[in-house]
Design brief:
The protein is α/β, with parallel strands linked by helices. It has a domain at 2-340 and 364-389 and 453-597: Alpha/Beta hydrolase fold, catalytic domain (Rossmann fold, 3-Layer(aba) Sandwich), CATH 3.40.50. Helices cover 32% and strands 10% of the residues. The chain has 22 helices and 18 strands. The protein has helices at 9-14, 16-22, 101-105, 110-119, 172-178, 190-193, 207-222, 240-250, 278-289, 301-305, 309-313, 388-393, 397-411, 416-426, 437-466, 499-503, 520-539, 552-561, 595-608, 658-663, 704-758, 831-844, and strands spanning 27-29, 34-35, 40-42, 44-46, 51-58, 82-83, 132-140, 143-144, 150-156, 181-185, 228-238, 260-264, 372-378, 471-476, 579-583, 587-591, 775-776, 786-787. The strands form 3 sheets. Strands 1, 4, 5, 7, 8, 9, 10, 11, 12, 13, 14, 15 and 16 form a 13-stranded mixed β-sheet that branches. Helix 15 crosses helix 19 (595-608). It is globular, with a radius of gyration of 41 Å.
Length: 845
Amino acid sequence: MPWRRAAPLLPLLLLLPLLLAASLPVHKYSTRVVRTKYGPLRGVVLLQRPVEAFLGVPYATPPLGSLRYMPPVTPSTWRGPRLADAFSAVCPQRAPHIANRTEALLEFPRGRLRHLERLLPLLANQSEDCLYLNVYVPRAGGAPEKQGPLPVIVFVHGESYDWNSGNPYDGSVLASQGRVIVVTINFRLGILGFLKTGAKGSAQGNFGLMDLVAGLHWLRENLPAFDGDPDRVTLVGHGTGAALVNILAVSPVAKELLHRAVLLSGSALSPWALQRDPLAVKRRVAEQTGCHGDLLEDDLAPCLRAKPLAELLAVRVDPPRFLPGFAPFVDGTVLPEAAARPRPAAPDPGLPPPGAPPPSPLPTLADFPRRDLLMSLTSVEAYLDLSAQDLEFGLNDSRRDRVLRTFVRNAYRFHLNEIFSTLRNEYTDWERPLRNPLGLRDSTLEVLGDGHTAAPLVRVGYLHAAQGGRTFFLHFQRLAASPESDYPQRTGSVRGEDVPYVLGLPLVGGQPFFPHNYSRQDAAVSRLLMQYLANFARTGDPNSEPRGRRTEQQSRDDEEEAGGEVPPFWDTYDTINQLYLEMGDSAQMRSHYRGHKMSLWLNLIPQLHRPGGDDLSMRHHHFMEEGAQFYEGPVRPQTLQRPAPTPAPPPAAPRPSPAAASSSSSRPSTPGDDGSSTTECPPNATSRPPSNNSHNLLRRLASSHYQSYTTALSVTIAVGCFLLLLNVLIFAGIYRQRDRAASAGHFGDKKKEELAEAGSCSSSSGEAHCLEAKLQQPPPGAGLPLRDLKCSPQAGRPAPPPGYPDPPPPKCAGNQAGAGILRQQGCPQTPAAAKKRVQIQEISV
């Protein structure tokens, strides 16, 4: 339709000043002059809310000329008061191309396209002189706060490593409602911020990360001038910004610069978070800019400094789908390599066998237990990965398989066929043989969202809690107020919809690039979320109430906005109960977020993603499908070369205690055990904790339910084996008794034949009697004499010892009539005796 077509770029540039002015309410210049270390500043006071804003504050020298591709330098000083009343230019970037709306809909959903149409005009003013930040300070009754230093929240923008800025995100509402200082910051992006220009093994690169560290240094030096507390700095990041916050939380260069971290829909363990092969990106840049030389030894920075900015921004990397192009990488300084785990002299049951691959070179990206962590996920994290056509009409089986095969090939490198089959089977509804396209679309969104965002973030939270860190987990499920055509047929919140609620925009009607039709319930949810976040920044606990900050009338107003409901107590996330807060129309506590699916990604997939033995060819791990018709987007090549081993480990550390070794004997492997090189970052990979760690984090990756199931299964198998052995012994005894009875019967028949030859029982007077047995004298030296009896001795009567005369034979009662098969020859039987012999005969048979 005509009204849906994007406006030309030139009118948007002409309207840029008006759009920037509309992003802030009516304001006036402040009468206060803040004296920073580098010079005095004067900001503006926002009249609609008690906030003092300092916009466009320089925190580093402009990286121009010889400072391009160099670490940031402290800013120059100034003498007179500097007006901080306008946003600075954003860093040079190449934003998504949306001029042709029809082509853009083949790549983006409708809601994403509408969001870009509102956001990109705010990013039109670009310059390399862009290292500035914005500070929002709350005021009490028109005057600065006088109740002690205020906690600080630094918002690190996301969207992409290639474009965006901190300027469009208004922090005034969060500052006024939460009584905290809010800071938004700009840093270098794309080819200027995340290109490895130096030689292999050097730390030349990651300039965007260095800019963030420089900004945190500036805040630590100057926060007291803004009535801020430099010892209570909380970093909040969304998407790629969350990955940057995660990296800074474990970086040694930012050790004292931040104290708490909030990760919204992202972490450094996601496959899109880090660049696995920065030298390959460097090669592409060298080919397109003409800066040739030794790729491993030469530095591209001198050549790139002489290039015009437009030529640098025109470089296209074309990374594989679901993987980044320009992105942070392991440089050994800002993001250090993990120390290789020492191998003891003797085999240790708690350590890998000598033939196992070396540990991953990545640092433990969840190793920040002294810093509190709050993490959040939306319902559909992969909604923006599909096009508008796919979301509206669904997918068929073949297209679903192509998307899934593309993700597996780009995110993993070992046992791709097994991982692909496992994911396809687990995310297929086999109870419905006729699957509709919309159902396949939903399952594809689930597998992609769980694989590249949800499971890595849950892994970070799990490891952080297992190390003793205080962790809080949020599932934001509320549907943001937006036209239904933006996100058609969705079942939950979409990635990025939680950001306006965190910033408090529903309370003021939104911003130019966010929807404006927020409801009263949206405002209540936003107010509650800001209260949790401000409390977390203040004390590390989202449940702590601000001391003396809110009046009774304000508390009553909050309860009325929330429908009279008291906010629930937000319990910590631990490795056993795994509690999290689900925030939709109302907030409530739940446990084990997507337990079965998360167990698949955190336990089974890492077991499958192993390289195997050294004699196993890489062809075993590859997909057989090589044509472009089997994939949906660019894929990385499959090579037969195994990943290079890690460098030699440091000197051996002391051996762990026996208790620690035994506790780690059942540790599952991690996907980092693949022997990747220092420039590789396998997905969901973390290095092993030290062997003497009593908690043994990797062992805790199996849930308590899984451990209980294993114990019960072991007991059942043991009982079954015991019963089987008992049955074998019983049958052996029965068969032995049978053999003995058969042998005794054969011996008795032989004796009967001998007695029949010697004579038989006679009854001359009509009374039955038995003849005495005749002792047959054996030849000399034949041993003891044997006695042949015509009748068996009575039961319970012992046989006489050798050399004694035989006792008189017992008299046989009764007549001999009716002799049967079971009666002995020559002896009558009573009914009781016959019955007893029948029973013995049955047992013998």
